[in-house]
Amino acid sequence: MVGKYTIMFLLVSVLLASCSKKQERVNVFIESEFPQTEYAINNASELFATDGLQRVDSKEEADVIVSVDTGLSNIKEEGFVLSNEKGTLEIKGKDPIGAMYGVFEVAEQLSFGKVLGEIKERTVNPSMKNRFIKFNLPWSSYRENDVISLHEE
Questions:
Q1: Closest C-alpha among 88, 83, 81, 37 to residue 60
Q2: Most-buried pick from 60, 73, 80, 139 (CB within 10 A)?
């Protein structure tokens, strides 16, 4: 009986190990250094549960180049462009916030298991003038009122 469970455990372990996909390490060079791009590269692993982004100090060893180009005419504020130039993915933000969102987009795609070559070129413009952070906090943390506390025990 014990032998049967041991074999089943080993088979399940082998199956899980073979199904897990090792995440690709991606070298990122930040051409335009701003607090927003620094925040993005330093926190992407925690925010998107990925350790795929690794900062490098030269363009030559980079798989991804992050820059800010205020001259992008078809991009709105906080927008970005992902383009593939000679095998290197370029993230160009209209402003530093756009570059930050571009880094987050790449980190998110990597966290989904995509490899760098599978990330498609695209232009992203925000659909609203201002972006906000939504915290999933209960209403009780915002308001105190008899109506709110009516159903509390």
A1: 88
A2: 80
